[in-house]
Amino acid sequence: MGISFFSILPLLLFYVLPIGFVIWFAFTIVRLQKEKNEILQSIADKLDSNEKK
After folding, report:
1. For residue 46, what are the CA distances in angstroms to 28, 42, 49, 50, 52?
2. 5, 27, 31, 33: which has the fewest Cβ within 10 Å?
3. What is the pLDDT along the chain (53 residues), one digit of tens a residue?
């Protein structure tokens, strides 16, 4: 009695794929927040340099 593809398919669809999607989504959110922070930091640096003049 071998394990067929159709017996693994529900496990793959209902457990592995959602976990993978959540991990991908979390990394995407972290990356976007990092980019936003870098942009805001560059804006803050420019404002600080203008105030010092």
Report:
1. 27, 6, 5, 6, 10
2. 5
3. 467 877 888 877 888 889 999 999 999 999 999 999 999 999 999 998 887 76
The enclosing H or E element of 2 equals: none
The full DSSP string for 41-53 is HHHHHHHHHHHH-
Written as six digits, the tokens of 39 are 């942009």
DSSP 14: I
Query: Strand, helix or coil at 26?
Result: helix
Question: CA-to-CA distance for 19 and 36, rounded, in angstroms?
Answer: 26
CA distances 9 to 2, 5, 6, 28, Å, are 14, 6, 5, 27
Distance CA 10, CA 27 (A): 26
